[in-house]
Design brief:
elongated, five-stranded parallel beta sheet, 10 helices, about 270 residues, alpha/beta, five-stranded antiparallel beta sheet, Rossmann fold
């Protein structure tokens, strides 16, 4: 790997930014770069390094940007250059390139809306499980490092929190456990269309039905609401904030690991 790319990778982690590392893994025929060539693709489409330039590299960049948008797992992307494309790129003949792509700079994140008893317990459990935790609340007496020393606390108006769209990505799990129904609804409404791994909302079935109806009437799509885990958490009979946190985190981990969550929630028969 190029030394410049290695230094840029370190900077991504230090700065909390994201990018896609692209490394030529295989080559056959006439290709512009050899195995081991590397490139970083940033969310704005800019790059560092190269895997060969031309049409092949353009396609790799497009795939990398898709991964940043959708939160895809690492993959091996194959590109073939036809004779006409090769001539256009100045190559002698066509070839095949296999490029390994991996999103770098972000790990599993847990954003908790609500710094009450359940939010606090969930923050502690999330950090213990290795998640990068952020807890939001508009009440300063709750959202502060003294009350919640695990992860990061943010105290600001809700709309300001959502101004930073880059904090949400395909490995972000979100749980709404705010102080009330209307605020939970505001959170859910703001989440529609964002790339997320998991969304859960606390509350009784009666409360959730009430909130859901209001969201539908305000224009939130039914398809989006169907993807929310509600009531949040696996049904283990949890009662205390700490037990609820365990049930919620277990569900998030199950989703992340590809487990049969419907069966775990008792939604399948037989």
């Amino acid at each position: 790997m190029d030394g410049v790319i290695a230094r840029r990778l370190a900077a991504l982690y230090e700065e909390g930014r994201r990018g896609v590392l692209c490394i030529v893994a295989e080559e056959a025929g006439s290709t512009p770069r050899s195995a081991g060539s590397s490139m970083l693709v940033y969310p704005d489409g800019s790059i560092e390094g190269t895997v060969g330039g031309g049409i092949m590299e353009h396609r790799v960049i497009e795939r990398a940007l898709e991964m940043l948008s959708n939160g895809s797992a690492p993959l091996l992307h194959r590109e073939s250059l036809t004779a006409d494309e090769a001539a256009f790129d100045g190559a002698v003949c066509g070839g095949t390139l296999a490029v390994y792509l991996e999103v770098i700079g972000r790990s599993r994140e847990l954003i908790i809306f609500g710094a009450g008893h359940v939010g606090r317990a969930l923050a502690r459990a999330g950090e213990t499980a290795g998640f990068q935790v952020t807890v939001w609340d508009e009440r300063e007496e709750f959202a502060n490092p003294e009350n919640i020393p695990w992860g990061r606390t943010v105290c600001c108006p809700l709309e300001k929190f959502f101004e930073e769209k880059g904090r949400f990505h395909g490995r972000t799990s979100v749980v709404a456990v705010t102080r009330g129904h209307s605020l939970d609804a505001e959170v859910v409404r703001a989440l529609e269309g964002l790339p997320l791994a998991y969304i859960g909302m606390i509350g009784s079935r009666k409360k959730i039905a009430f909130v859901r109806q209001g969201l539908l009437e305000s224009g939130v799509s039914e398809a989006f609401l169907e993807g929310i885990y509600q009531p949040v958490g696996l049904p283990i009979g949890a009662e205390t904030p700490e037990e609820i946190a365990v049930s919620v985190l277990a569900e998030i981990i199950a989703v992340d690991r590809g487990a049969d969550v419907a069966a775990l929630r008792g939604e399948k028969k037989g």
